[in-house]
Amino acid sequence: MSVPDFAYRRPATLAEALDLLASDPEARALAGGQTLIPALKQRMSRPAMLVDLRSVPEMRGIDVTPERVSIGAMTPHVATATDPRIRAAIPALSAMASHISHPQVRNLGTMGGSISNNDPAADYPAALLGLGAEIETTRRRIPAGEFFLGLFTTALEPGELVLRIHFPRPENCGYIKFANPASGYVTAGAFVARGPAGIRVAINGAGPVVFRFSEAEARLSGDFSTAALDGLTLPAAGLNSDIHASAAYRAQLAVVGTRRALAIALAELPEQIKESA
Amino acid sequence: MIELCITVNGIEQRREVEDRTLLVEFLRDHCHLTGTNIGCDTTQCGCCTVHVDGRAIKSCTVLAAQVDGSEVVTIEGLGQPENLHPMQKAFRHHHALQCGYCTSGMIMQGVDIVRRGRACDEATIRHELEGNFCRCTGYQGIVDAISDVARNAPESCAADRGRT
């Protein structure tokens, strides 16, 4: 047996799930398990109980209206990648989902699980922040800008679960990531959007948590074109630095990524959203 | 302990197992279906790929309890030595294996790729194989085999055979 022991529960209702999670301080919610199960194997997490959320109806389903796209927390990446309504409404989001990890993981991994984990090298935080999404939880609605707080840290309180993610529909959007060729994790990525939340540029992978690239936003607010980004730089201070990429290199990738994501948003570039770096 | 009922290759497998049992452990240790291999055990290599309700997943990274009530198809359910699935025949024909350790996962993933219509060109096949590692062949034979089945026998991948 490669994982330590725990009790498995699959509640049929949200109320039952919340009760189970409240019943034991060592209980943890299980979404798709594509991060949690590897973490169990490495003994990074030792829950006494896993509460599988797959049967909770409030966390399922995709709704698309003329104003917004609403995605249940337990929606697997493959559904976000292939739903034609999402592809039409927010093409960069479905393109992003179709390049998360690899196909087998996309069949199980979920949006709610990914954003609750908030890995700095994850993809979705850039989409949520870039589009100005709102996270509906079991207690409240949290704007993306107040949700992703730090390295593997979110605004979620103990026992609070993500139910759905609500995205306003943008006019233009584009995403590109430079991913480590071995692990597939994001070295640096950029999500550019123009829409109800204004003009936003969200950078993932480069820092300990997704952040808005304010100088790029300011320039694009005056002129939403690649020319507006000429000479743009991002300070490297505070960015991640490891054996794969220095902070300065990540800063440069973020700038190049912003340019290419904008070109995708403007349909000047085909959707080649993933490159190795 | 937890009682599970998982349909594996068309046969109901009712077993009482520890809650922590991974699907690959359920298949190998409890059902004695050892065609599904454990390679890296870290969700990278794809040796343990099986189909759950018609979708390819990595059985080392899902609990057996998570797929309770589901239909699982493994390499044993795809074809038999005397009646190989077209994907198995294509792997043999194109020399798409050497040591064979990744092969059952590659074949299960190959069937999934063709089923989803993603074997349209070489670049797409390679993108779809990102979760399967082969350390022998250099992948060319694998890509050729999947492409061959997509061209000549796509209907063989439409639904899992062996489910009776």
Please describe what this structure looks like.
- Chain A has 277 residues and is α+β, with helices and mostly antiparallel strands.
- Chain A has 2 domains: 7-55, Uridine Diphospho-n-acetylenolpyruvylglucosamine Reductase, domain 2; 59-276, Uridine Diphospho-n-acetylenolpyruvylglucosamine Reductase, domain 3, CATH 3.30.465.10.
- Helix content of chain A is 30%, strand content 25%.
- Chain A is globular and about 55 Å long.
- With 164 residues, chain B is an alpha+beta fold.
- Chain B folds into 2 domains: 2-78, Roll (Ubiquitin-like (UB roll)), CATH 3.10.20; 86-157, DNA polymerase, domain 1, CATH 1.10.150.
- In chain B, strands 2-1-5-3-4 form a 5-stranded mixed sheet, sandwiched between helices.
- In chain B, strand 3 (49-52) and strand 4 (55-58) form a beta hairpin.
- The two termini of chain B are 29 Å apart.
- The mean pLDDT of chain B is 95.
- Classes of the chains: A alpha+beta (277), B alpha+beta (164).
- The A-B interface holds A 1-8, 10, 30, 33-34, 37-38, 41, 50, 52, 54, 78, 101-105, 107-108, 184 and B 2, 18-22, 25, 41-43, 46, 49, 55-58, 60-63, 65-66, 68, 109, 112-113, 128, 130-132.
Short description:
The complex is a heterodimer of chains A (277) and B (164). Chain A is an alpha+beta fold and 277 residues long.
Secondary-structure element order of chain A, as H and E? Answer: EHEHEEEHHHHHHEEEEEEEEEHHE
- Strands of the widest sheet of chain A, in order across it, are 4-5-10-6-7
Mind telling me which CATH architecture of the largest domain in chain A this is? Answer: 2-Layer Sandwich
Give the integer mean of the pLDDT values of chain A.
96
**Tally of structural domains of chain A:** 2
